[in-house]
Amino acid sequence: MSYQELLRVALRAIRAHKLRSFLTLLGIIIGVTTIVGVVGIITGLNRYVQEKVIVLAPDMYIVTRFGIIRSREEFLQAVKRPQLTWEEYERISSGVLSHAAMTATRSFKTLPVNYGTHRLADTFVVGSTANFARILNLDTGGNGRFFTEGEDEAAQNVAVIGADIKQELFPNQDPIGRTMMVRGLPFRVIGHMVKEGKGLGINRDQLVIIPFQVYRKNFFAPNDPLDYFIKARDGVEGLDASIDETRAFLRALRHTSWRDPDPVGFLTQDQLQELWRQISTATFVLLTLIASVSLGVGGIVIMNIMLVSVAERTQEIGVRMALGARKRDIQRQFLLEASLLSMAGGLIGVILGGAAALLVKAATGFPAQITPGIVLMGVGLSTVVGLLAGFLPARRAANLPVIDALRAE
């Protein structure tokens, strides 16, 4: 039998029992919908994290009190560390030779900000040194400028604001040169950044950046965390050497014994990306296992329905074999029916899963991305399930004795 004839016979058998065929597909549809939706969302999220959240350049690193915490013991150990200080920053910035640039910053402190009748109750105000913008590649797009080292040292009340802050406080007007209030203190706006989105877990468009000495004088508490952003002098090749030199310098400053762990943590682009890969991979595996249950159930349903179909069509199989159909023709026929059923469920599941992922993206802004690879994965996976589920019924049909099959009622 030719493949065209096998296809016609398989399609005729599927159309003869439309409702049963549809109910057979439900398990496959649910499983593929879940897998495609999850993979689409995780793929989009991975790309978003790499492009928007993990914004450290490959030749940069952060010196912080905590670093990356992987266990309860590491957390308890990090809690015991003293905060990084301004005095240590001054010593490191002048004593470590492998730095091309270094900045100190105190982030993630919310303060009320207002201009006239416009008020924002909880705004992220960042105190940083003058080269903060250069190290993190912040851009005003020609809308003013960032403060200078002289303005920082003189503790002048100037500020650079994010795009969302500009829109909220200064709608339809240029904020440059205007005076805004940060927790009751006046600050002259000297620049506003272009829209950038999130980076390192915080929305840059909702920042107010002020000189560190002003921040230190007016808003800094003794236990406030201080972080150092450092750019290695020799680029990516010099990153490890710069980290080692900073580590040795801080261990000496804090009189840390060679037996004890580092008194600070270090964050690099590779570490952040590896941490995210571990999180996203674990989430993907868990959700995929859950979705695989539906695919397994769908495969079992297809196998049972095909076994019922073999029993119902025993006489038909006998007639076809009596007329010259070979065992492999009968086996191919039932394998083709099972794979067509499963492939149809896979196609429907891909459409529904892709629509669900894009609907989540449209409704919540949560990143999602449906690629051709995801589509092929969904259809291919469902087809494989159908072939595996149809193997036993196809083999049973092919091994029916011709005489017994012809006598079946």
UniProtKB/TrEMBL annotation:
Keyword Cytoplasm attached: no
Pfam families in alphabetical order: FtsX, MacB_PCD
Upper lineage: Bacteria, Pseudomonadati, Acidobacteriota, Holophagae, Holophagales
Residue ranges of every copy of the ABC3 transporter permease C-terminal domain listed in the record: 289-401
Major localization listed first in the record, in broad terms: membrane
Protein family per UniProt: Belongs to the ABC-4 integral membrane protein family.
Boundaries of every MacB-like periplasmic core domain copy: 21-236
Species per Swiss-Prot/TrEMBL record: Geothrix limicola
Domain of life: Bacteria
Membrane topology per record: Multi-pass membrane protein
InterPro entries linked: ABC3_permease_C (IPR003838), MacB_PCD (IPR025857), Macrolide_Exporter_MacB (IPR050250)
UniProt-recorded name of the protein: ABC transporter permease
Subcellular location: Cell membrane
Keyword terms, alphabetized: Cell membrane, Membrane, Transmembrane, Transmembrane helix
Residues passing through the membrane, by range: 21-45, 284-311, 334-358, 370-392
